[in-house]
Amino acid sequence: MTDTSARQFEGEARFGDYVALLKPRVMSLVVFTALVGLLVAPVRLHPVEAFAAILFIAIGAGASGALNMWWDADIDARMRRTAKRPIPAGVVEPGEALAIGVALSGLAVVMLGLATNLLAAALLAFTIFFYAVIYTMWLKRWTPQNIVIGGAAGAFPPMIGWAAATGSISLEAVLMFALIFMWTPPHFWALALFTRSDYAEAGVPMLTVTHGRSVTRAHILAYTLALVPVALGLGLTSIGGPIYLAVSLALNARFVLGAWRIWRREETEAEADGYRAEKLFFRDSLAYLFLHFGALLAEAGLRMLGLGGATWL
């Protein structure tokens, strides 16, 4: 952090720079999965309470992003993918990012507790702590399993949404968490396959750097196969149904096929076509998660209309 902090910051930060500090793309995924967790829960919140809950979960996610950028400014400056972020670009000072992250964290946790319940607030506080401290400050720079363990931070939002509505945690909430948790490694390892040099130059012990691309390809296939029963199992709970199961079967078939193709590829083949299959798998992984949660939302909509799907568990 010393080298980055010592840089001369030129120009004046604009509103968009502070928005970028909150990682809006990541925040959008957090908001969507948290919203689904809230809406599929068996307890209906007042629209104002529901809006407040999602707003403060989003603020908490943004706070985590700001704290991550503050601590990782030195790494971001050495990676092409992140070099234009506000701190390494020299438009936001590290101290500002830290202050914004801490202030928004406190605001989000306190206000979520007041708007909903203490369990939801506690889960949000733990999520921010886990992402900013356990993952960003420790795991990311220490172990090639960083994204496996650290993936828990991104898996909590639907559980927080469920807790905000019900004041409790159930099997459904745990399986929504598990779906994102198991999805995270193949998603990020696919990215790491075609951005390996970035992580290597930044000194981040991503699996592609410490064990090579061949081992990473095998890990992607293994985690994808382990993800399938979790995804399908969610469809057998009270929030699942025929629509979700049909969507999940199609998505998992495509995802497993993509992981199989990646595993069988030789590195020379991947280099020759510019990691085309790996990039396609990465894009598919985004659709995979979005469509699974979208299907849960569709099932919830049918139940609200009195056309609810079947429940097996």
TrEMBL record:
Highest taxon, organism lineage: Bacteria
A GO biological-process term: heme O biosynthetic process
InterPro entries: Protohaem_IX_farnesylTrfase (IPR006369), UbiA_prenyltransferase (IPR000537), UbiA_prenylTrfase_CS (IPR030470), UbiA_sf (IPR044878)
Pfam families in the cross-refs: UbiA
Membrane topology classification: Multi-pass membrane protein
E.C. no: 2.5.1.141
GO MF assignments: protoheme IX farnesyltransferase activity
Major subcellular site: membrane
Localization annotation: Cell membrane
Residue ranges of the TM segments: 26-45, 51-71, 91-112, 118-139, 146-165, 171-194, 215-237, 243-263, 286-305
Pathway: Porphyrin-containing compound metabolism; heme O biosynthesis; heme O from protoheme: step 1/1
GO cellular component, one term: plasma membrane
Keywords: Cell membrane, Heme biosynthesis, Membrane, Transferase, Transmembrane, Transmembrane helix
Keyword match Transcription regulation: no
Keyword check for Transport: no
NCBIfam families: cyoE_ctaB, PRK04375.1-2
Function per UniProt: Converts heme B (protoheme IX) to heme O by substitution of the vinyl group on carbon 2 of heme B porphyrin ring with a hydroxyethyl farnesyl side group.
Self-association and partners: Interacts with CtaA.
Family in the record: Belongs to the UbiA prenyltransferase family. Protoheme IX farnesyltransferase subfamily.
General remark: Carbon 2 of the heme B porphyrin ring is defined according to the Fischer nomenclature.
Protein name: Protoheme IX farnesyltransferase
